[in-house]
Amino acid sequence: MEKNLQLARRMNAAAWVITGVVLILVGLMRRVKISLPEGWDFSFLPPFHATVNALTAVVLLIAFYYIKQKNVQMHRRMIYVAIGLSVLFLLSYVAYHFTTPETLFGDANRDGVVDAAEKAAVGGLRTLYLVILLSHIVLAALALPLILFTFIRAYTGQVERHRKMARWVFPIWLYVAITGPLAYVMLKPYY
Questions:
Q1: Based on the structure, what is the number of domains in the chain?
Q2: Range of the domain at 125
Q3: How far apart are CA 30 and CA 11, in angstroms?
Q4: For the domain that residue 65 is a member of, what is the CATH number?
Q5: What's the rounded mean pLDDT across residues 113-124?
């Protein structure tokens, strides 16, 4: 038991470091742009991101199904898949945003500015998009350490603590996994 608690402490420290690094990268990715080599184009990544997020949502629902069936082994496997998909998404998303100009909802002429006429053309849909996007971003930032800590609780045998956390971390993670593709579908006409 003591060995598991020591492992949990080390993993918790690593989770905080990972969270800090990710938040710094996400904060920088819209301010810092890295030029791609001639001929490289990452425009294929937004639909890839939406697909990976959608797959994450499906896998999370499968993991939920398995744990309700008390099939801990399959639940664990699905959670590993969901975490793997989330890591893949995060790495790809950060790479995309460090190398590609931001796409703005309503920017029909793709000049990087949503002027009054463009805002009027999309009306309240822009507000809806921004609410979905803002909630997605805030909850994604909040979810990252919570997902890691919930995983650590299970991995180190703290099953009851894992269950208590998972009850409220799961819906947040699922919401983030669903609203990512939703935001992409709404933004797609402006890519």
A1: 1
A2: 2-190
A3: 29
A4: 1.20.120
A5: 94
